[in-house]
Request: fold
Amino acid sequence: MEIKSLLVLSLIWALVDSCTTPLGETSQCVSLYDCPALLSAFEHRPLPSSVISFLKRSSCGFEGYVPRVCCGPLPTQDEEQPTQRPWSSTTESNNNDVDPVEDEDSYPAPRDQCGVDTNGDRIYGGQFTDLDEFPWMALLGYKTASGRITYQCGGVLVNRRYVLTAAHCVTGAIEQQLGTLVTVRLGEYDTQTEVDCSDGVCADPPQNIPVAAAYPHSGYSEKNKNRRDDIGLVRLARRARYSYYVQPICLVGNGRISDGSDVYVAGWGKTLNGKSSPVKLKLSLPTFNKNQCAQKYRTLGAELIEKQICAGGSFAEDACRGDSGGPLMRKRPEGIWESIGIVSFGYGCGREGWPGVYTSVAAYNDWIKSKLSATNV
Ligand code: ARG
Reply:
């Protein structure tokens, strides 16, 4: 009897502790210090991003402050290729000359392959993001009269080929004021440094991809004070390469967004000091009651519509100039990030009682899907 229960116990123990390594092998979840194969990876500085990525994917909990890992050898170059990575692709090619139309570009990234913030866990009043946080963030670059590229809007990667942004970032005054939208920058962190590093870890260089075409929503017009239909898609001339620092976000799925729920904005927009931020910033803010928000903006002659969301409204906590086109995001209970809004406009920035206005992604899900399939030909 006793032997039997001991057996059951050790069986349970084995089940609890057994795990699958990122390479698909069955192994044990042990303290990092008990796994020489992975511990030795720390000897190289700076740590290559492929190693960090592998270590993170090997993690299976903590023992106090010490991470536990699903112990197994680091992959060799060949093994590291497509296996198990949510962002892997068998069709991906590094050859930039060959760039066929891929069917998967006609849809937002599938739900099991998007919104994975590899990170474990200052916009106006915001904070620095981590190097690898929000890997779907894109910067839109405009070519000025002097031939310089200036980055003035944000966006998010929804699959390898398309960036979702605001209509006012791809059409109208912005092109007269700044120049033509020519390029998209992915995997950026600090626009002022060539290689972005933090704590001895360096990100891959950003991917600069020329713009093939931009598709603002046909309902958008600068004449409309409410900025309705402020949404657009940018098609990249080359497909983005997914990596630890470049990944797609999910589009909002089911679930209501109740007033006061915590959401995030991120971007390189203007901060309290009046300048745009070189470093990608983030800010957590609550969604704002839509009726109250509509009442506020009505006093300015802007009649907000159903397809807009308001968020913020506290002093010095807001998106601002340069953040346009960037996402309003939330993290689902399963840990997946989804885009729920697009930075559209506000009344100044960070004024108490004046929330920012965002285009609701849920309201345009069908538009996004039909545009992706219609333009990916
Ligand atoms: N329209 C601005 C831009 O071009 C961003 C507006 C966001 N403003 C705000 N107060 N939430 O970048």
